[in-house]
Amino acid sequence: MRNPKIITEHWGKIDPLKIEDYLNVGGYAALKKFIAKMDPQKALDEVKISGLSGKGGAGFLTGAKWEIVAKQKGEKYFICNLDESEPGTYKDRLIAENNPQILLEGIILAALTVGAKKSYIYLNGNFEKAREILERAIEQAKENKFLGSKILGSKYLLEIEIFSGAGAYICGEETALINSIEGNRGEPKIRPPYPTEAGLFGKPTVVNNAETIANVPWIIQNGGGRYSECATKLFVLGGAVKKRGVAEAPIGTTMKKAIEELGGGMQRGKDFWFAQVGGAAGRLYLEKELDAPITGSGAILVVDKTANLYDLLLSWTGFFRRESCGKCVPCREGTFRLNEIVERLADGEISDRDKEAMLDILWTLENTTFCPLGKFAATAVRDAVDKLGVVSTNYE
Ligand SMILES: Cc1cc2nc3c(=O)[nH]c(=O)nc-3n(C[C@H](O)[C@H](O)[C@H](O)COP(=O)(O)O)c2cc1C
Ligand code: SF4
User: Fold this and answer.
1) I need a labelling partner for 273 at 20 to 30 A (CA). Which of 66, 255, 290, 322 fits?
2) Ligand 2 atom with least separation from CA of 329
3) Does residue 63 have its Cβ closer than 6 Å to ligand 1?
4) 189 lines ligand 2 (CB under 6 A)
5) What integer pLDDT is reported at residue 396 of this predicted model?
6) Does residue 280 belong to any structural domain of this protein?
7) Residue 273's CATH number
8) How far apart, in whole angstroms, are the C-alpha atoms of residue 239 and residue 234?
9) Which residues lie across from 121 on neighbouring strands?
10) What tens digit of pLDDT does each residue of 245-271 get?
11) Is 257 in the same domain as 216?
12) Residues 207, 100: one domain?
């Protein structure tokens, strides 16, 4: 079966400031179907059948997450994660800017399914355009009775609030995000308990990535079975390819296919060196490894042989040094020292002691930090050491 465009179908064709445009292309049919013919259990079943998995990086099964919260009684929350502070990744922002109503419809369906009456969109504070568009979209959804009390005349109610973060990378991590909404310092919490048990204000909470949520209207409208046969993913292509930007393609697309078909191949005169897959926290892949499917958040940076690896190392380690929240010593100190060593490496002043320390720090980040950010800080540098030989004596 040909893969439909589930998320990007109407990008550029509808005005994101006009709900009528979304309604004219069949928007809110899924919510109408939910209200008229379904109930939360049926919707949950469809999402479970669909096999929808999280698009925020970890790939957790969405239906399984929702079920834990749906089973619990009392106050609950649904949060749309639109923090997206990772360099080279902007797919979620483009969803909000190009088709905000698909996101709202997804949030409404998700919240009603898990039994939440209040939902937050945790929006990166730098996304001013997305904020304006989403604010307008929420107003229009309320005017059309898709939001508020008695949604489409039913017993269901939901309020959606936009919460602007300050653009800290750690606040994309779900427990840090929850801390941030609660008015606390944006740093991760110990797990368990997981947010599904004790999340926002101590209540059961689902946190989902914006792309994950934008798939939900299609699933409710067309059925989980169909989705499982033609699921897609947004890929963000950057670097030395001919066509940079966001493309929607079948799940399981290999790196090679993404570079050649979605990215149109290498730019003229540029030779492939490696690809970084998954943003600043992504692993590095050599040409011989490109037959594997793309995993993680879907960002691909294609690096050609003229690139300066030291500049890349400085940008990766500088990013994590700045973004470490400082809660745990191995990451607070490790990201700092790693960046310093890379600075000496780039200046041609690296000593044997630095090389040893670098390997120690990488191990420490990989194995001892409080949250995954520490591990992420080591990933690309580790691959630069192991695959590109960056600190070996014969690296030029
Ligand atoms: C350091 C760090 C940053 C993260 N940033 C984001 C982010 O910007 N957006 C996002 O959706 N998930 C992010 N995540 C993953 C979230 O913690 C969480 O797994 C995700 O929002 C769940 O949604 P999903 O199941 O739909 O993928 C981050 C995780 C870590 C450790
Ligand atoms: S690993 Fe880094 S970001 Fe995570 S808690 Fe420790 S200091 Fe904070």
Assistant:
1) 322
2) 7
3) no
4) no
5) 45
6) yes
7) 3.10.20.600
8) 17
9) 80, 162
10) 999 999 999 999 999 999 999 999 999
11) no
12) yes
Residues 64 and 153 in one domain: yes
Cβ neighbours, 10 Å, residue 194: 16
Is the CB of residue 120 less than 8 Å from the CB of residue 134? no
Q: Look at residue 9 and tell me whether its pLDDT is greater than 50.
A: yes
Residue from 276, 274, 209 nearest 237 by CA = 276
The Å distance, Cα 366 to ligand 2 centre, comes to 12
Phi-psi sector, 306: left (phi>0), alpha (psi -120 to 50), beta: alpha
Instruction: Say how many Å lie between the CA of residue 389 and the centre of ligand 1.
Output: 31
Q: Of 229, 249, 270, which residue sits at a domain end?
A: 229
Question: Which of 266, 283, 304 represents a domain boundary (last residue)?
Answer: 304
Ligand 1 centroid vs 235 CA: distance in angstroms? 16
For residues 357 and 344, what is the distance between their CA atoms, to the nearest angstrom? Answer: 13
The DSSP line for 211-235 is HHHHTHHHHHHH-HHHHHHH-EEEE
Angle between helices 352-368 and 329-346 (to 10 degrees): 150
Indicate whether 340 and 364 sit together in one domain. yes
The percentage of residues in the chain with a pLDDT greater than 90, rounded to a whole number, is: 93
User: Each residue of 155-177: pLDDT tens digit?
Assistant: 999 999 999 999 899 999 999 99
The number of distinct structural domains making up the chain is: 3
The pLDDT, as a whole number, for residue 61 is 98
User: Does residue 203 surpass a pLDDT of 80?
Assistant: yes
Rounded CA separation 163/186 (Å): 13
Report whether residue 170 contacts ligand 1, using a CB cutoff of 6 Å: yes
CATH code for position 208: 3.40.50.11540
Domain-located, residue 260: yes
- My answer on whether 224 and 241 are in the same domain is no
Q: In percent, how much of the chain has pLDDT > 70?
A: 98
> 81: Cβ below 6 Å to ligand 1?
yes
Among 59, 4, 7, 1, CA closest to 215: 7
- Looking at residues 84-88, what average pLDDT do you find? 91
Which range of residues forms the domain containing residue 290?
231-304
Residues 214 and 96 in one domain: yes
The model's pTM is 0.97
Question: Which CA distances in Å does 44 have to 114, 154, 225, 268?
Answer: 8, 19, 13, 48
Upper half-sphere CA count for residue 179 (Cβ side, 13 Å): 17
Yes or no: say if 11 and 247 are a contact pair by the CB < 8 Å rule.
no
